[in-house]
Specification:
66% helix
């Protein structure tokens, strides 16, 4: 193509696929100024203007505004710089759209009211930092000012909800439920009772921390009893309870007597709120972790069996083995 060739606006429109009105707008704003004018006063453009117009169209298709495009054309910023900045901006928009899609699917699944949908949308839009702040505030409010089990509190603070950039509706639903749960005054009161119980135990010298091995022992032992169809109030449950109380006595360096059983029953009843297990299950869904099988049937059986086989039961309320 001859570099001296000049094109009319109509020529540019045919070559680029843009409308005459659009090209005239770019010309009027100085984005693609005319190279010359014909004797009759019509605008004429050279090959450089055509190339400039092609670049403008490409950048507009990518979503850049005219102010940024003019900076690129005038070489105030480079194309790579603009591309990187625009890609970052698009990431934010894409994440917002994915969240919106997940919220809408969750709303459709649960049949939410307009009020629930509004709440879900607001909670889903929270940043990672805002989600962590909400959970930390819950922990501060329930454990604050008490010398509770430090390992347990550390475990709670280390398990923060991390909603992915492209969440499934179930993850959005789980986050909304978790946020609502942590704001439930009754649940907060239950967790506070557990924290006070832990503090009281520590004041009496219990610094044993978490007991995952003990929980596994209860799960396996009672699990076999459940599989065998042994009723918690039956005579067959007696040796099972005896073996478990002996294990607790060994772990906590206590005598395996009636006082231990009263203490253990209180401990189990304090652990009995099903919302505590729900808290951890919701976190697993949100973070994409494997959701552990529920221990509720195991500890329900254990508590009922211990109550049946312990005279003059004591009462209480929260924290697994």
């Amino acid at each position: 193509m001859d570099g001296d060739t000049l094109f009319t606006i109509g020529d540019l429109a045919r070559r680029t696929g843009l409308t005459v009105k659009t090209i005239r707008f770019y010309s009027d704003t100085g984005t693609v100024p005319p190279t010359d004018r014909s004797p009759a006063g019509y605008r004429l453009y050279d090959i450089d203007a055509l190339t400039r117009l092609d670049l403008v169209r490409t950048l507009r298709d990518l979503g850049l505004d005219l102010a940024v495009i003019r900076q690129v054309l005038d070489r105030e910023v480079s194309v790579p710089e603009v591309a990187a900045a625009h890609a970052d901006a698009l990431e934010v928009q894409i994440r917002a759209l994915r969240l919106r899609r997940a919220v809408l699917r969750a709303v459709a699944k649960r049949g939410s009211t307009p009020e629930e949908m509004d709440l879900m949308h607001k909670l889903a839009k929270l940043s990672d930092e805002e989600r962590r702040r909400l959970i930390n505030h819950f922990i501060d409010d329930t454990f604050g000012g008490l010398d509770a089990n430090a390992d347990f509190v550390d475990m709670m603070r280390s398990a923060m909800p991390e909603l992915p950039d492209d969440p499934e509706p179930e993850q959005v639903d789980a986050w909304v439920e978790l946020a609502e749960l942590t704001q439930d005054p009754d649940f907060r009161a239950a967790v506070r009772r557990m924290a006070k119980y832990q503090a009281a135990e520590r004041a009496q010298g219990d610094v044993t921390g978490l007991h995952h091995d003990l929980t596994e022992t209860v799960r396996d032992t009672v699990g076999h009893a459940l599989d065998a169809g042994i009723a918690p109030a039956s005579a067959e449950a007696t040796p099972i309870i005896d073996s478990l109380t002996a294990r607790y006595a060994q772990t906590f360096s206590r005598a395996d007597d009636a006082d231990l059983r009263h203490w253990l029953l209180t401990r189990l009843e304090i652990a009995g709120d099903p919302r505590t297990e729900r808290y951890w299950h919701l976190l697993a869904v949100i973070n994409g972790w494997p959701v552990p099988p529920s221990l509720a049937p195991v500890f329900t059986w254990f508590t009922e069996a211990l109550r049946t086989h312990t005279p003059q039961q004591s009462r209480g309320q929260w924290s697994h083995a």
